[in-house]
Amino acid sequence: MTKYALVFPGQGSQSRGMMNAYADFSVVRDTFAEASDVLKQDLWQLVAEGSDADLSSTVNTQPVMLTAGIAVYRAWQSLNTPAPLMMAGHSLAEYTALVASGALKFSDALPLVRYRAECMQSAVPEGVGGIAAILGLDDEAVREVCKEASQNEVLEAVNYNSPGQVVIAGNRSAVERGMELAKARGAKRAIMLPMSVPSHCKLLKGASEKLDAYLQNVPMQVPAIPVIQNADVKNFTDVVSIKAALIRQLYMPVRWVETIQYFGKHGITHNIECAPGKVLVGLNKRIDTNQQALTLNDSAALQAALTALN
To answer: Has 266 been annotated as catalytic?
Structure first.
């Protein structure tokens, strides 16, 4: 029997024109209009015509990717698809999953993720932090590299994305040392990522405290569909625990490998990436070959995924 989970991608999946592939779905444009109205900013124009710099600015990327994920989710629902058994979102997209699951209102989530982005950006001034992908080393080797290269600065493994792909973050100088040391230890590649904030490391502890204060006043309910949260790889069933996990997520690693493995242990046969792009599909295929990884990255892909489930 087919059992599927939906996954939502976070920062790094944005690109100019990424919503053009959904021209068949009026609900996509309507979702962007709704978000633009809430934030008093034309997100459709930003996605259609914005510069790369504007799109990759954290305060824009976070609401844009939330909106894109929800727009594609609504397009998927419009095909009378069966409900997923579980959901998860990579980093920022944990908020997308919570909206899709019914835990959080879209209109509340938009200013929340913008505030989250502002807290993150102000916690680490431009140029102080860095974030890099290390390819071809196992998890323990990356953790050892971080320990050795930190030299009294912050350097941590922050995203366990797939076997042999771990992201490190911290002070920029420590990240640069870590990249060199990783290559010396046999990493195939070490790539500085074009992100202005070193997400999921201790440098964001101050940001998490500000976010915590804001989040206490945001209405939330228990998700109708279980959401497996990044920091703990657990499905929490009370609002206090869900909010606490969102706060921890800001300065703790994204445990994506374990998340996809969790799906497999709970009988999931298909995981479907719900957004433009296919960043997660590539990771998910490497994590668990027993699950079929699909994407909803254009109108044809939505139909193909529906056929695969049926």
So the answer is: no
**Residue 258 contacts residue 266 (beta carbons within 8 Å):** no
Sign of CA dihedral 191, 173, 154, 62: negative
Residues sharing a CB contact under 8 Å with residue 267, sequence separation 6 or more, in sequence order = 3, 85
Do 259 and 135 meet the contact criterion of CB atoms below 8 Å apart? no
What residue ranges in 150-238 does DSSP mark as E strands? Answer: 155-162, 165-171, 189-192, 228-229, 234-235
Contact indicator for 170, 160 with CB cutoff of 8 Å: no
Beta bridge partners of 7: 88, 273
pTM over 0.85: yes
Q: Of 36, 90, 199, 200, which is the active-site residue?
A: 200
pLDDT in tens, 105-114: 999 999 999 9
Check if 91 is active-site: yes
- Tell me the pLDDT tens digit for each residue of 14-29: 889 999 999 899 999 9
The two tokens of residue 132 are: 């890099």
Distance in angstroms (rounded) separating the CA atoms of residues 22 and 202: 39
